[in-house]
Specification:
The protein is α/β, with parallel strands linked by helices. The chain contains 7 helices and 23 strands.
Length: 411
């Protein structure tokens, strides 16, 4: 049933009602128009013993829920709270929730007494939590510190960013890209302190993030997925990439094991070197075991390949990511450029051969290469790369070939 908060019949007992939407945005037909109530709307779920699905949208003052033990799905949209305590009290009334969506919520005061244990909201049955378009995005994921969620709960975040919010140079006065979504205290929630895998995909119009408590990337293990729509056409993809990499160092704990950075093909990819941004990742995540790096041009890879496998005999510092076992490099360019393709695979070969020599012959467990077209002299470079990894996988034009002990295996 869909209605508004001004209808008195929502206070009556309806034993068979399973779904209720209270939406004060939708105008009523003229012959049903009722002056809006200035009293707080109270949903007595005892009146609706079979109510499973409840949506509250654009209600003011904010509604209260009493005895919502039957509710398994709750959506709150465009509500203004005096403090987040009002939201916490409302959620405590719904202990059986499995699906919770909080969209476009605001609070007059976002201050929360961190020392007060009574703020914790137990949601032990929750399967999916969706956070979308908060007026103050800095507080979106900070609320998670006050939610007691099962480790299997999936968290989806959706927000947006305007082109003018990002400076061309990292560390400028512009807004952060995503770090504001993460609490400064990573121990405030196991969701943040236990993150082992981070996936970043930057396309023309969207930035997608995926964080998991498992070091092996899998759609079944992601704990947090975040999507940020890029509004406008003036984004510099490399500037965003550099900013993201710097923010990773503060947003995540040092226990990260898997890092996935993918930048889709873009005509305007450029904007200086990202070498310093990569260097910040080496020290921030010393336990990294799996690296995926996909980019649209040789400049994307040039920013880190020389560090990954420095020229010998000069080795001014220890190798970055000494625990690295798995590497996947992908050329995301959509243009056929044999010269650049060969420069790229040659640079990869030189870097990884140098890394093996610097590591006293220690090889990778698996190396994967993805190219849109076969680079010139591909077999020559693959022959050299066979010496740096136990298993070599390469994909050209969608065809995947696995080399195990030098013998091709169907992909």
């Amino acid at each position: 049933m869909s209605t508004t908060s001004s209808q008195t019949y929502i206070e009556h007992r309806m034993e068979l009602l399973s779904s209720l939407i209270i939406d004060d945005r939708s105008p009523l037909p003229q012959n049903h128009a009722t002056p809006p109530s200035h009293n707080i709307v109270t949903i007595h779920c005892d009146h609706f013993p079979k109510l499973n699905f409840l949506t509250l949208r654009d209600i003011g003052p904010v509604a209260r829920i009493v005895n919502g033990h039957s509710l398994t799905s709750l959506k709150l949209q465009a509500l203004l709270h005096d403090t987040w305590d009002e939201l916490f009290d409302l959620l405590r009334s719904c202990p059986a929730l499995e699906y919770l969506k909080l969209a476009s919520l605001e609070a007059e005061s976002t201050a929360i007494d961190d020392g007060a244990s009574h703020h914790i909201v137990e949601m032990r049955h929750l399967r999916t939590l969706t956070l979308k378009d908060f007026c103050e995005p800095r507080g979106m994921l900070s609320l998670l510190a006050y939610f007691a969620l099962p480790r299997t709960a999936r968290i989806n975040v959706s927000t947006y960013m305007n082109a003018g919010d990002i400076d061309d140079e990292p560390g400028g006065s512009g807004e952060t890209v995503f770090a504001h979504m993460f609490p400064e205290d990573k121990t405030s929630s196991s969701v943040f302190s236990d993150i082992r895998s981070m996936q970043i995909v930057l396309s023309h119009k969207c930035l997608d993030l995926g964080a998991s408590t498992s070091k092996v990337p899998s759609a079944d293990t992601y704990s947090i997925t975040a999507s940020c729509n890029l509004v406008g056409s003036q984004f510099n993809p490399k500037s965003i990439q550099k900013q993201i990499m710097l923010e990773l160092c503060t947003a995540l704990s040092t226990s990260l094991k898997t890092l996935h950075i993918h930048v889709e093909a873009h005509d305007d990819y450029g904007g200086g070197s990202a070498t310093e941004s990569w260097k910040s990742l080496y020290t921030a995540f010393p336990r990294l075991e799996y690296l995926y790096a996909g980019g649209p041009s040789i400049s994307f890879f040039a920013d880190f390949l020389r560090d990954l496998g420095p020229d010998l005999p000069v080795q001014p510092s220890p190798l970055p990511w000494p625990k690295l076992k798995l590497i996947k490099f992908a050329n995301t360019s959509t243009k056929e450029d044999p010269v650049e393709s060969e420069v790229l695979i040659q640079s990869i070969t030189t870097s990884l051969c140098n890394r093996r020599d610097a590591a006293s012959g220690k090889c990778l467990r698996r190396l994967t290469l993805v190219f849109p077209e076969a680079p010139p002299r591909l077999e020559t470079y693959l022959g050299q790369l066979r010496r740096v990894t136990a298993k070599l996988v390469y994909t050209v034009r969608g065809e995947r070939i696995v080399l195990d002990n030098g013998v091709p295996i169907a992909g």
